[in-house]
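User: Batch of two.

Assistant: Item 1 of 2:
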Amino acid sequence: MKVAIVGAGFTGLSVAYKLTKEKITVDIFEKEKSLGGLASSFSLPNWQNPLEKHYHHWFTNDSHALDLIKELGLEQDLIFPKTTTSIYYQGNSYPFNSPLDLLNFHPLKLSSRVRTGVILLYLKILPKVWAIELEKFTAYYWLEKWFGKQSFEILWQPLLLGKFGALASKINMAWFWARIKKRTMRLGYLHGGYQKLIDSMAHEINQNGGKFFLSTSFDSNHVSKYDKVIVTAPTDYFLNTFRNFPVEYKRRLSQIPHLHALNFVMITKKKFLDRVYWLNINENNFPFIGVIQQTNMIDCSSYGNQHITWVANYLPPNHPYLKMTPDMLYKTYLPFLKKINKDFDFQGSIINCYTFLGKFAQPVFPVHYSRVKPDFITPFDNVYLANMDMVYPWDRGTNYAIELGYEVAKMVTRES
């Protein structure tokens, strides 16, 4: 059997890894010049390790990713350092890592803090089989009802608005539950970055006979050359690559909204955030949603003793920021970065800035999303779909990309 895999992100790599271990002939097509998809990396000449274009980390319960790391013999490079997550609200940064931090979060009155803690605990222990029923409610409705108006307006509404903008009120509560359910106290990373895992997977795939075709788009004319085709690229790509879809199928997949990830990377001489790794922005007037200080997780010696800061954003496809150069985006963000750290010497510390765009990075999950969620099976014989629109209710991430790849590989192997 000969299989084509479209897309060499973690889903595509995971499919290829599993199939080639079964001695199935696999060709992997990737339109970019490098592997990894949204987890692809870049490097500078004086760096020891590459850096992801889009920030990444693992939770301690990301079993598929952690098992794969162990299987490939990389567990000695896996770390779960102690890091700090904080909330920026009304000009102040508040730690938000533990129940004690919540009790000390003074913008909420004491009764709201206690109520918030109780509801968070409820969501944390709620099993998936029950939580999926929450998809019939919007997160807006459920969060305000159960957390209370103050907690909703200070903690949750700004995060939803920051990430989803005009679509924030449509997000269903099952997706929000998954964000609470999955989060762990410690966050993980590999010495050598995600590129080390990507390279290890690619090496195994090559050793088992798989072939990569980089900078190569797959089109429908290729289909006849393969027994099976597995598309792991975004749904938009799938709909534009193949033709003659049944009307209802195309309508169902076309109604799934997506946002693009826009990440602005600052390379600096000094840390922008002194101790905080992840800073959520709970201010509705800010033009970005978070600041991630990579060198508060990984020592700056990995990056030529330079410091790395991501400034995170999710934007609709027509947003003007997507067309900005790094310099233009820096000037747009600068007044707000100064609010976060008024003492930072931007002129003297900044070495360089970069922007990276991840198209269709974030699916938007409205109420009753399970009714429109794509399936592995498509209207075309022997053509399968497996992408981030399908990991619901979990949020996108490499752990679920790996699981998705394994599942479709198992299906194809079983059918063969």
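Item 2 of 2:
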Amino acid sequence: MKNFLFKRIPLLCFFCFLFVSNKSFCYLSPEEVLVVANMNARRSVSLAVYYINKRHIPKENLLKIWCTDSEMISREDYNKKIKIPIQKFLKDHPKNKIRCLLLMYGVPLKVGGVPLSLEKQTELKNLKIRLSLLQEQLKSEKDIARKKALQNKIKKLKNRLMQLNLSLNTSASVDSELSLAKVKDYPLGFWIPNPYFMFNQKSKLKYRKKDVLLVARLDGPDPEIVKRIINDSIYAEKKGLKGIAYFDARWKEPKNKKKLGGYAFYDYSLHLAAKEIRKSKLLKVVLEDTKRLFKKNECKKAALYCGWYSLGHYIDSFKWVKGAIGYHMASVECETLKNKSSNIWCVKMLQKGIAATIGPVGEPYIQAFPVPHIFFWALTDGYFSLVESYYLSLPYISWKMVLIGDPLYLPFKVHNKKIENLSNVN
């Protein structure tokens, strides 16, 4: 996973500001969820109806679309068969006040990129040729001054190539792309800052909260796993999520916390998440802060988890309790949800019993992951649902990330007496 373009984030967490500024954001209601099912995928509609009945969602909040049942959909078909039907529903049902989309088993996971124009293809080809020529010239150059000049040219050319390649990276998760379904047109190259992200609260962004839909999916290797996720989430919500929180950092807590970026910041965020949950006294916390990963069968009664970095290789360390939530920060841990033989983290965690997880469909770069201490703070506060906790901690949309789980899930509702007064929040 590359550490690229990391914008340093202030480490002071303005939680009071966050809480006050998001009073109207908390406690997602069933009436605000639009459930999207694919009529062309077996069990998609029946699972949607099952969820709607379990969560008492209005029956009119079911949108049936018809598209491919494969995990990849072309950009053209995505627009015609997914985005436009959702936009039409929102336009035709303004009184529903939909804030959240729930994509059901059978809705495609990934949307392809926009085909390169002839102009861009030519530019890319010419840049690569120029770079190759300069590199060959550098090999035979003896003069120190000319050698340095060539190195500078090569560096600039590589930067230009990188920027061009990023701007041409228009593939995404269907979920993240649908965050901007209410927006008619927006740039598709690379990512877009998420206005709900905690550290964007005071930023002047092009797209505001009113433009963004919260998106989650109920999905997995088979329909029975989806049904289990629904049942386990409701069970844990009623009983209260119990067990142990496991965090797997790679380094000790840094002494100098002022200029952390990239991997160092996210590793420190794991330390902060562990501190936050210890402070809440909701769960016992285990923090691993060396380069070793949790070993097989080491993590009993796992209720929460976040860690890194075992790329594409799930380690069977966990015995998940009902309603468990966790994610592993590595590059392609959600590139598929249907391949039962895959050893990526999202697939394996769902097969092993987790109720909610997060992962990217392609290379996201580390700074695109939900920031752990924000995600787990919001989750354990009791006010914010699973999908709201995700969006508060998610830096970018129109990108690679996917949230698998019940968007309405409030795992610590029964632990927090404040939740009883939610009717008075606004």
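Residues 15-23+220-424 form one domain.
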